[in-house]
Write a structure and sequence with these properties.
This is AMP-binding_C domain-containing protein. This protein is an alpha+beta fold. It has a single domain, classed as GMP Synthetase, Chain A, domain 3 (2-Layer Sandwich). The strands form two sheets. It has a two-stranded antiparallel sheet with strand order 1-2. Strand 3 and strand 4 form a beta hairpin. The longest helix is centred in the last third of the chain and has 11 residues. It is elongated.
Length: about 70
């Protein structure tokens, strides 16, 4: 589990969410140390089409934020 600001986040839940994105072929999430939050989830993704219209990190981040509670 990744501990973010006192909350526990399961990497597999974020990976499953990332895999619902139409341009992501594979995803892995780890926690990286952060001085303010303890840890922050960090995703590594393999894109189906690296030149696709929704392949920028900002596009994927916005997609994930729109799906999280």
């Amino acid at each position: 589990l990744i501990k973010v600001n006192g909350l526990q986040v399961a990497p597999t839940e974020l990976e499953d969410l990332l895999m619902t994105h139409s341009n992501i072929a594979d995803a892995a999430v780890i926690g990286l140390a952060d001085e303010h939050f303890g840890q922050v989830p960090t995703a590594f993704v393999v894109l189906k089409d690296p030149n696709g219209k929704d392949s920028l990190p900002e596009d994927i981040e916005e997609y994930v934020k729109g799906k999280l509670p």
